[in-house]
Amino acid sequence: MKNVKRNLKWMKVTAPFLGAFVLAACGGDQEDTEATEGAGDGEAPEVEEDDGTLVIGTGTDMVTFDIHDHNATNTEAIHVNMFNYLVKRDDDEGFEGDLAKSFENVDDETWHFTLHEGVEFHNGDELTAEDVKFTLERVIEDETLVEHSNYNQIKEVNVLGDYEFELVTDGPDPALLNRVSRIGSGILPADYIEEEGWDHFLSNPVGTGPFEFSEWNRDDSVVLERFDNYFEGEVTEWEEVVFRVIPETSTRVNELLTGGVHIAENVPPAEWDRVNDNDGTSIVTGASNRVMLLMLNQDDEYATSDKRVRQAIDYAIDNAALTDQLLGGHGTPVQTRITPGNTGAHPDLFESYNHDPEKAKELLEEAGYGDGVEITFNSPQGRYMMDTEVAELVRGMLSQVGITANLEFLEWSNFAEMHTNGTNEEMYFLGLGNSMFDAGLGLDDFSSGGSDRTGYENEELDELLSQAAVNMDEDEREEQYQKAQEIVAEDLPSVFLYQADAMAGVSDSVNFEIALDETLYVRNIERN
Amino acid sequence: MSVNISAQTEAPREEEFEVSKRPNQLRRWAKLLLRSKTGTIGMLIVLSVCFTAVFAPFLAPYEPDAMNAANINVPPMWLDGGSSAHVLGTDSLGRDMLSRLIYGSQVSLIIGVFSVIVAGIIGLAMGILAGYYGKWIDNLVMRVVDSFLAVPNILLILVILGIFGSNMLTLILVLGVTNWVIYARLVRSEVLSLKERDFIRAAKSIGTKDSTIMLKHILPNVFSSFIVISTLSVATTIILEASLSFLGLGIQPPSISWGYMLSSGRDYLATSWWLATFPGLAITFTVLGIIFLGDWLRDVLDPRSQGRK
Amino acid sequence: MSRNRQPLLEIKGLKKHFDISSGWFSREQKSVKAVDGIDLKVYPGETLGIVGESGCGKSTTGNTILRLLEATEGQILFEGEDLAKLSNKQMREKRKDIQMIFQDPFSSLNPRMKVFDLIAEPLRSHKAASGRELKKQVYELMETVGISKSFAERFPHEFSGGQRQRIGIARALALKPKLIVCDEPVSALDVSIQSQILNLLDRLQKEFNLTYIFIAHGLPAIKHISDRVAVMYLGKVVELADRDQLFEKPMHPYTEGLLSSVPIPDPENRNNRERIILKGDLPSPANPPSGCRFHTRCPYADEKCRTEEPAFSEERDGHHVMCHYPLKAGRGVLVGNS
Amino acid sequence: MKQEQPLLDVRHLKTYFHTENGTVPSVEGVSFQINKGEVVAIVGESGCGKSVTSYSIMGLVKSPGKIEAGEVLLDGTDLTTLSKRQMRKLRGNDMSMIFQEPLTSLNPLFTVGFQISEVIVLHQDVTKKEARQKTIEMIEKVGIPNAEKIYSNFPHQLSGGMRQRIMIAIALACNPKLLIADEPTTALDVSIQAQILDLMKKLRKELETSILIITHDLGVVAEMVDRVVVMYAGKVVEEGTVYELFRDPKHPYTKGLLESTPKIHERKDELYSIKGTVPTPANMPKGCSFSPRCAFAGDKCREQQPELVQVNSGQKVSCWLHEEGEVSLHEQKQTAAT
Amino acid sequence: MKRYLIRRILQVIPVLLIISFIVFSLVFLAGNPVALMLPEDASQEQVEALTESLGLNEPFYVQYGMFLGNAVQGDFGQSYRYNQDAMSIVLERLPQTLELAAVSMLFATIIAVPLGIWSASKQNSFVDVFATGASVLGKAMPNFWLGIMLILLFSVNLSLFPVSGRGSFMHIVLPAITLGTAIAAEMTRLIRSNMLEVMQQDYVRTAQSKGQKDSVVTYRHAFKNCLIPVVTIMALQTSSLIGGALVTEVVFAWPGMGQLLVQAVNARDMAIVQACVFVIAIAVIAMNLVADIVYRLIDPRIKYD
Prior knowledge:
The complex is a heteropentamer. Chain C is an alpha/beta fold. Chain C is built from ten helices and twelve strands. The longest helix of chain C is centred in the middle third of the chain and has 18 residues. By secondary structure, chain D is α/β, with parallel strands linked by helices. In chain D, strand 9 and strand 10 form a beta hairpin. The longest helix of chain D is centred in the middle third of the chain and has 18 residues. By secondary structure, chain E is an all-alpha fold. Chain E has a two-stranded antiparallel ribbon. In chain E, helix 5 packs parallel to helix 12, helix 9 crosses helix 10 and helix 10 packs across helix 11. Chain E is flat. The interface between A and E is large, with 58 and 52 residues.
């Protein structure tokens, strides 16, 4: 009797623990079924469908409303709804006017623009050429601004009339239109800023876009409201859009599943089934122009200064395995940084890769590393989709051909510092976008005047790049860039892995497509 | 007034004392341990975790970082799709969960134990010095302690790791350097009350040196509460390491700790639950075991609770 | 006893004040005057009893002699040398000659040390013996105080209070000191054990020609063991006399009240004994009364007592008292109880 | 003995503690009576079970302690059979208790006034105002001046003696039939002890309360009580009127206790002492529990447990020496010596 | 009381000085932040110019002095990431963190006080065993894990509470439970062991000997005494509460300092980090001060100076 009692007591202690474990263990299984049932009723609890509010869940907060002083894609993704560029890229690599009604290339160094009349800022001011001059001169003149280096090719902004002006570049600039259709190209209200000052503007930003600023709670949300006097008329059905910051991926997905957000950005493949299996949500993927690559250092003290070693690395890696296994097929193996949709893209180097472990071993043998070689391999963690896994898998692939990659993950600020200061060792894993949509920006890294991260120098490449940079003949310029990419693919200052797809979880109640530049044009998001 | 018993007045030179029979120390502890169910369970858990950590290379069926891209996210063997080749399934890179779990115990324990040792050594030294000498030394040490207490340790750890990066050594040092204050506080207050005990005065009155008093009289006497706190502290450190992994500042791969496995598996909770659940259970069980053991130690070692019986 | 000899220890004008307002920022300095100017002489081979109620400063005096507390003021001359002036190192040396036995046998022995190490500690600290010699001496000491050497490897908690006190005594004896300060050595013990310890102390004194300062609040024990007795009240010695003098003919009203307060284990005479019960509580030593410190509780106090502090004067041969009106007839307890 | 029913009749009380180390028989078959208006003392050294006896009577034995057998009759009602609620009604009302440490026995967070009035409100049908009035009366009754002011003081603001007076006020507030005082003066200074004893004597006469005093101090016993119960190792070894017991102790232990107490009205060069120490429950000797320490112990003593037997009109003793009628210890000693 | 308060507040000064020293040393060791502030292709002259204008080429003690001078005026510099006064950004987030911490504490108290008392007064009963087990478990679960599990269960499966964010009362329930669990566990254990100890005290026996009811003895006499150490130790927990909030905020996208800080550390935005550490330190110190005062209100034995 006593023993029984004791045992009972003992069970009482363990019961709550067991309960918790069961909860933990079953969480996953119950998930799919019950969540489905819950959503099966059709109504998601949080977002009420008719109030005209679009909620988008993002991983990180935007950083500033100073359009010239950031280079963050996620910040620009929000800015595009509030500001207008002069021109915008159209679907087939050309450009169409945005604020500019028309534009023409007067000579190699001069561009003439005419603005739409009657464009109104959110504060009621009318857009004139003076605002353009104010905006561009700021970024051209102030060296401390992050975007300065992307604009200082413009020599002057000449106002020709209320709605007319011309841009004069410092030498021919074939990429000028790319330049003024990206980060930092939004046009700001000159009078408003001059009267109220920058600080006021930063907390009460004013633009010409379809949405006007409502509030920004740092690390929580940015709220924009529809601007009813938008110069193109009403272009969206959303009265309000909320960008919510939800750093934790599973929380972001859970919000989507429970209807807390319409769109959850950056949903990793691990969560796809959950999103797709849920009634009312699905995964949307789309190509971005971000290319994941391994930056290799060719300074003499490193084994990677030997081209054969670099090629061995390229041959060792099965790019398709990375995209298929880790990204669920949503990525494209590449051999270049310039992907379709960007000026100068090379079709042969897209969707292609080298993979031949045997050859990699041979190359290593030739290079004198038959017994293996040890290199340092740095990678950021939690920065790119599945970055940890990719880095680990790459390490595994390299080890199979005899390259011991000592993988060191760096916390982002340390990683950024290494990248910025060029203090990298043999190899590091990095993803690079191309906000200019022009091969020039993407290939600049490999010129001898570019960064010293790779230590790569090739006179032929330098020649090609400097010619192309000022070549106003589009076709010839494209050829030059394609040639340059071939050289890079051969010499491998970087091993290119794959073009990453952006992945978002989307509620079926909205129609959302991922833009190549990963911005969130709310006016393109429609209600279903 | 009454009879005087003169024969009995001689004080005995040597007496027969009934000093209780001296049990074998080890057996005494074993007996004490077996008497407490939670203590026994705690000890069993802790011993088995230690065993796993020490003999990991012999226990693990696979290398912990052997990847198999064809075999990713395989569920545990008792579920559909599982196989007996991977008892607890595989992770997102096709690595064997069981092997990783076994190897993970090493790092988790090493970080837990060594950071506590670092913290303990600093804390013991500071606490004893402050408590024993008092005056300005005490004031200085206590203000430093106050300062550390005013800043949540995870915050400080976050900043330090953010600056210096995170590897096992820095992690151990940082956890140690930020946690010493609890020991210093505890030890100091123990020393203050010990100082009131006569045996410290007695040692002084005999002419014992300060250094000897601190090492021989104070240290052994604060040691038992120190051990109790340390035990519990190992548990909190294991949890803390997991939280740091969650914030991306914990142990970095290819090293494996349970905390890292748990936090990196969290994205798979809803689809491949075993990735996070097994390390989670491992942490919970281990911490549970350590707390049980620590509580038992407290009951056994704490003179206050001894007096309470 | 032999009053003509040089005193072994002489205390002159000893004061010990404790500051009670601690903290960095307080302005006021309040202090407890635990010992407020006492003079005592201790002669070789005698036992000086110091008696008084709690808070009278008797233990503080004992601790100050060994410099376990630093004196605020005054001199402690041991064989003519002022202990207060010694450096810490010199004082450590000096402690060979002066030892202490503590009140609480439970807290005065390090619970983590074995009996052997406890007794060996003083010998080791002063490098007085080592190796086999150390062992031999420790065993001798154990035998002397009546503990079988088979217990050398035991820890203190395995012993009873009386046995622990024996260990404490062995420690104090180890360095063959000249003076032992016994700070309430029997107060914490059961009656049947008290007498064992008192007898042991008696025997050791004869055997090793020891000098004791015996501090206690229990008058019977003091009476049993002392040669001379000092009565302390609120930091002052109010009466000092030979034991028999003091107990038979106390001259200070406080001593008289104290003696009369002690319950006597003799029921036959309980109803015909005239008791003088001291009224009121002990005043706080932080704020002692003006004039004679005892005036608040003294049945004989008058205006003079309230304002003027009496001198500590020798009224009879070797009988000192601090009172304006010392009792002449002395109502000792022995009187009327033959 | 008297014919009337005793106020308290404790019969074969057994209280055991069931600890992790096994069962400790703290009180092992204790019987005694207290008549109305009588003061009885239980005397013994620490660990003899005297306090546990008092808690058993009050029903305050805490787990793991438990009354295993026996009866406690208060006015004929067996307290061991009462429900918790019935017991609560008696406590503080019909019987109450004061404790050794007056500081820790008072709740530090409540005013003393509240703590006294609490018991009044609990057991008497009074308004708050009346309770306050009664409380102030009680404070005055225990000899504290300024009762109004003291009412709102907290315990820490009072001296030890005052606190014990407050405890007495709490205990006597409802005019109980029985007051149990557990070492009421042990923690106090001699001069204060005398005051408290005096107060208890005075109040006892005034309120006609029976008192059970638990003490180890034979002086207190001699001063206060009518009858004495001597306990050793959980058993009563001797019982008798205070006069008989002090004049002619029958049990060697009682005798030893009396002899080993140093007395201020006597001189002796060496004190009598009882050898050895009180046995721990773990190694309780066979036969008479005092036999290992007893100078007169014979083989029978070591084998068999003696019963408590009446040896004359006022005395009971539990000793084989008195098995066959009255034998004086004096004579017996000779036999033991040979 | 006033003098006591002044003294306590003055004691905070050395503490803040030490904190400032530690934090500043860390920032100093973090190296030159200019590279992060300037665009990628900034010239060497630009770097040097900015370094000089920020005083970053001065020796350590000069920089520390400047830092202290500014800090005294509440100026912790500009957040390079937000281009805004760091302190004002931090202060914007403080109330949310405090709100979460306060509600968590409340939750913990509501759970722990009855559970602790109950399990102490019925030692070894089912309640006691349950409370002990639950409190150990509460400590054994990493907080982010608990948070994620709660979201899965209560938000996704049961649709009872919103997943994340701040807004209605319902929003704070899950984060508060997540954050409060460990505190509740600690508090339960503490109250239980303290109650057990207090129940052994003589004055409890006195209360019983008066014939007082068990419940009155427990609540009136024992619990109030038990509260004193509990209040003190719970105040010390403020620090770990805020520490836990950092993690909880990330899980629940709670817009408090935690998120801000984690982002700031990642981006090495040291001005924000410094301001955060100071604000938190002052909050913790203030809480301890409040606890001290409460403690003094409960316990008449403590004098105010």
